[in-house]
Amino acid sequence: MSQIRTLFKNVSWVAVSQVITNICAFLWTILIARYLGVTDYGTLSFVISFTVLIGMGTDIGITTFTTRELAQNESKTKKYINNLIIYKILLSVVLCAFTVLIVYLLGYSELVVELTLIMFIEASFVTMFNFVNGVFQAHERLKPSSIGVILYSISLLCLIFIVSFLNLGIIAVAISYAVAYLIGLLFVSYNLIKTFGFPNFEFDLSFWKEVSIKSLPFGLTIFFYTIYFSIDVVMISWLSNDYATGLYNSAYKVISVFTAFYVIYNYVIFPLMSKLYTEDTNMLKVSFEQSFKYSLLILLPIIIGVYFYSHYLITLIYSNEFALAYVPMQILIWTVVFLFINGVATSLLNSIGKEFEVTKIYVVAAIFNIVLNYFLIPKYTYIGASIATVLSEILILALMMYKISKTEYKPDSTLLKTILKLAICGIILAIVLYLINVSLWLAIPIGLVVYIISLFITRSIDDTDKYILKELLGK
Question: Which residue, 5, 44, 84, 322, could crosslink 318 as a Cys pair with Cβ 3.0–4.6 Å?
Answer without folding.
Answer: 322
